[in-house]
Design brief:
257 residues; mainly beta; 10-stranded antiparallel β-sheet; 5-stranded mixed β-sheet; globular
Length: 257
């Protein structure tokens, strides 16, 4: 199977174009590399730091080919953030596409969800200060020999289709929320999952929505958004926001290009 880097849909290897979004699957092959221009040639794209007040700060021009983001020796320098590695991620610029790739870091690289996004089992999402993981394929424990459910299992909830796990340091599970309703909402003052102590979470921030056997994360018009952790190399587009540690960057076309 070939996973489309644009929409995440799995496609049979016989197809040239994604059956979901129609974009070329050749961009998704692990052997594909964006065509590089001569070293130092501008690509017409920038990463722009987003300030805490939502305004735009320093602009970092990108070149065609690979651009590194990190704390040391990188084209885009991110200082004073213990969650950002020396060489944290790369942005690869080609003629008609750009890719973001995390370089195997402990704390990951995230892209802000626009509106809504279908999630896969194991996906991790940053909402406010919290990190959540989606668990869709957890098998139900078989009953004990006497017919009773195991303590800590989902017990009498036959219609669940997964769980949302709040993760702490070293991925320790701090909370587990069962996904059994068509829509499970999260917010600071209202919802099924409450985050009352996080000022970066909106009153009604996001919802996990069931669609058949899949789960969609829908942003409910929140101020600070929801960020999906990248897995492998993902395509990025004009206006996308990238989160590393507590730093946010906007990927955008150079107005002078």
């Amino acid at each position: 199977m070939i996973k489309c880097v644009h929409c995440g849909e799995e496609n049979e290897p016989i197809f040239t174009y994604c059956l979901s979004c129609g974009k070329p699957l050749e961009q998704s092959l692990s052997s594909f590399k964006p065509r590089a221009a001569p070293a130092g040639k501008g690509a017409g794209w920038n990463l722009v730091a987003v300030r805490a007040d939502g305004g735009l700060g320093t602009e970092y021009p990108l070149i065609q080919g690979a651009n590194t983001i990190g704390a040391k020796g990188s084209q885009v320098m991110v200082a004073d953030d213990p969650r950002v590695a020396d060489q944290h991620a790369t942005v690869e610029i080609g003629d008609d596409i750009a890719f973001l790739k995390d370089l195997g870091t402990r704390h990951g690289t995230f892209v802000r969800i626009r509106g809504e996004r279908v999630l896969a089992d194991g996906d991790q999402v940053r909402i406010g200060h919290a990190l959540f993981a989606l668990e869709l394929k957890r098998p139900r424990p078989q009953p004990a020999p006497d017919g009773s459910a195991w303590l800590g299992s989902l017990g009498v909830l036959p219609d669940h289709y997964g769980r949302v796990l709040r993760l702490g340091p070293e991925d320790v599970v701090l909370e587990a929320h069962v996904l059994s309703k068509p829509e499970v909402t999260l917010g600071r003052t209202a919802g099924d999952i409450l985050m009352a102590d996080d000022p970066f979470v909106s009153s009604r921030h996001a919802a996990f929505v069931r669609s058949g056997e899949t789960c969609t994360l829908k942003d409910l018009g929140s101020t600070n958004g929801c960020y999906l952790r990248t897995r492998g190399r993902v395509a990025i587009h004009d206006g996308d926001q990238i989160l590393l540690g507590h730093h946010v960057f906007r990927f955008q076309r150079n107005a002078r290009a």
